[in-house]
């Protein structure tokens, strides 16, 4: 049933006047803020059990950083956009309810380490069934496994009240952190999956009508529910695959003398390939890629498709290899020991223009260095100090949190962070790092001074002329002072 939505702009039989979103996180907050801005005739209420988070959404300092989000929230908040912990009132009032809660990878039980944990989604379904007194359209916004809508409907029907009917839709998000507001304002496509029944089609029309306030009709695609659910996993898997592919080639480039940036440009100019997601780096991170890949691996195994599972597992393995390869080269280049050596880590977020640290490569790099006894000076312009400490003292990272705390220092000034360090490790591609005064930095560092550019954003020739030893990804740099993974400086 995949097709562009070609319906009319006329109002659906029961136009949506109230929307509730359960979950005030990275998806729910920005999505509903933009929806409120674009649909001034609809009241949008975002609810969450976390009082601290809701208070932040109602304050001048929002709980997440996203370019353009502050302005959108300030325009709509208190007008037709509300943030509340009163779930009962919001669910009762809404005709359409988004479920936008976390679906982390399971940490125990069946599918541990691979399957998505749907306990929060199930909890939302039970809450809706308990509160609802009239029919509702329930929309999966969270990333869920294929056929999760079916499970959702089972819970709702098993706890149903007389006269209350539910339509389940899948409406996955395709947001990239750092450009989420732009993605929401001008989406490549909006995907809506639903049941191929008259009731399902009416529900789809209602959600289409909401999006048609600002999205062109030919960009609204409708499918069956399962195609929609799988499309989200597939999109993230394909993007992650491109990153792992170019990262695998970066190792080949270092071994042969090719330049991965030139290779990426050459293949990216092929219209069949395209240039996006071909930037070699220390590895991918974020809340979606690894989680969705693991979910796809698990689903494939459960469907008795071991070859498919192994294929997608290799994308994850290559990402882990790239992070490990980069970390080990830092140690090798620093005379095979970093014990008690101060090292500056510039950037902790998984990418620029976000404060999100979920699955950031910086955690893996920092863990390796800390395990080897390094002292880390960490600077990131948007990540909170408490978040960095929590990430690096997590039980899955260390058994000795107090030792980690004594070995790291968080800085608010990059120049202070690099002072008297042996090396700088760039883990996030923040624009401001390209504008730093590296002459000043060089003078303040221990000699020889090293820069490990894990994002390929710095001017390596300029750094060499200053006197730095530069180690980068996917390029054999032969001039004195310039090195890659395969070329350890001879001292």
From TrEMBL:
Annotated metabolic or biological route of this protein: Nucleotide-sugar biosynthesis; UDP-alpha-D-glucuronate biosynthesis; UDP-alpha-D-glucuronate from UDP-alpha-D-glucose: step 1/1
Similarity comment: family membership: Belongs to the UDP-glucose/GDP-mannose dehydrogenase family.
Keyword Transport attached: no
Domain of life (superkingdom): Eukaryota
Positions annotated as active site in the UniProt record: 288
A GO cellular component annotation in the UniProt record: nucleus
Key words of the record: NAD, Oxidoreductase
Taxonomic path: Eukaryota, Metazoa, Ecdysozoa, Arthropoda, Hexapoda
Protein name: UDP-glucose 6-dehydrogenase
Organism: Chironomus riparius
Pfam family, one: UDPG_MGDP_dh
InterPro entries in the cross-refs: 6-PGluconate_DH-like_C_sf, NAD(P)-bd_dom_sf, UDP-Glc/GDP-Man, UDP-Glc/GDP-Man_DH_C, UDP-Glc/GDP-Man_DH_C_sf, UDP-Glc/GDP-Man_DH_dimer, UDP-Glc/GDP-Man_DH_N, UDPglc_DH_euk
């Amino acid at each position: 049933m995949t097709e562009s939505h070609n319906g009319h702009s006329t109002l659906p039989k029961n136009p949506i006047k109230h929307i509730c979103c359960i979950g005030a996180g990275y998806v729910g907050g920005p999505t509903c803020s933009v929806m409120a801005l674009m649909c001034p005739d609809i009241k949008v209420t975002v609810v969450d059990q976390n009082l601290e988070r809701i208070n932040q959404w109602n304050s001048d300092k929002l709980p997440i950083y996203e370019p353009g989000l502050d302005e959108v929230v300030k325009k709509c908040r208190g007008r037709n956009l509300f943030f509340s912990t009163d779930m009962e009132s919001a669910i009762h009032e809404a005709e359409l309810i988004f479920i936008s809660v976390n679906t982390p990878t399971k940490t125990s039980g069946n599918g541990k380490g691979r399957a998505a944990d749907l306990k929060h989604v199930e909890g939302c379904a039970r809450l809706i069934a308990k509160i609802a007194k009239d029919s509702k359209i329930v929309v999966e916004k969270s990333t869920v496994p294929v056929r999760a809508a079916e499970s959702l409907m089972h819970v709702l029907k098993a706890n149903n009240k007389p006269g209350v009917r539910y339509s389940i839709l899948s409406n996955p998000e395709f947001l990239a952190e750092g450009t989420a507001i732009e993605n929401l304002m001008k989406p490549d496509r909006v995907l809506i999956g639903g049941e191929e029944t008259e009731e399902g089609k009416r529900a789809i029309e209602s959600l289409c009508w909401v999006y048609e306030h600002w999205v062109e009709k030919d960009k609204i695609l409708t499918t069956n529910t399962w195609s929609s659910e799988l499309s989200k996993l597939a999109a993230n898997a394909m993007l992650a695959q491109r990153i792992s592919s170019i990262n695998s080639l970066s190792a080949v480039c270092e071994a042969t003398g090719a330049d991965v940036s030139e290779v990426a440009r050459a293949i990216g100019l092929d219209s069949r390939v395209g240039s996006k997601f071909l930037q070699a780096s220390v590895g991918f991170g974020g809340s979606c890629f690894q989680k969705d890949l693991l979910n796809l691996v698990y689903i494939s195994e459960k469907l008795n498709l071991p070859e498919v599972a192994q294929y997608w597992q290799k994308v994850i393995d290559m990402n882990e290899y790239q992070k490990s390869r980069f970390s080990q080269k830092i140690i090798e280049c620093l005379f095979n020991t970093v014990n008690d050596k101060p090292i500056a880590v510039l950037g902790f977020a998984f990418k620029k223009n976000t404060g999100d640290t979920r699955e950031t490569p910086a955690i893996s790099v920092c863990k390796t260095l800390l395990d080897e006894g390094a002292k880390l000076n960490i600077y990131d312009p948007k990540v909170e100090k408490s978040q960095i400490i929590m990430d690096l003292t997590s039980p899955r990272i260390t058994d000795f949190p107090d030792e980690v705390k004594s070995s790291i220092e968080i800085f608010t000034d990059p120049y202070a962070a690099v002072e008297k360090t042996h090396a700088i490790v760039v883990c996030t591609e923040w624009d401001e790092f390209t504008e730093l005064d590296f002459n000043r930095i060089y003078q303040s560092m221990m000699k020889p001074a090293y820069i490990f550019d894990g994002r390929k954003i710095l001017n390596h020739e300029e750094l060499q002329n200053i006197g730095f030893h530069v180690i980068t990804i996917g390029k054999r740099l032969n001039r004195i002072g310039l090195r890659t993974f395969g070329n350890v400086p001879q001292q």
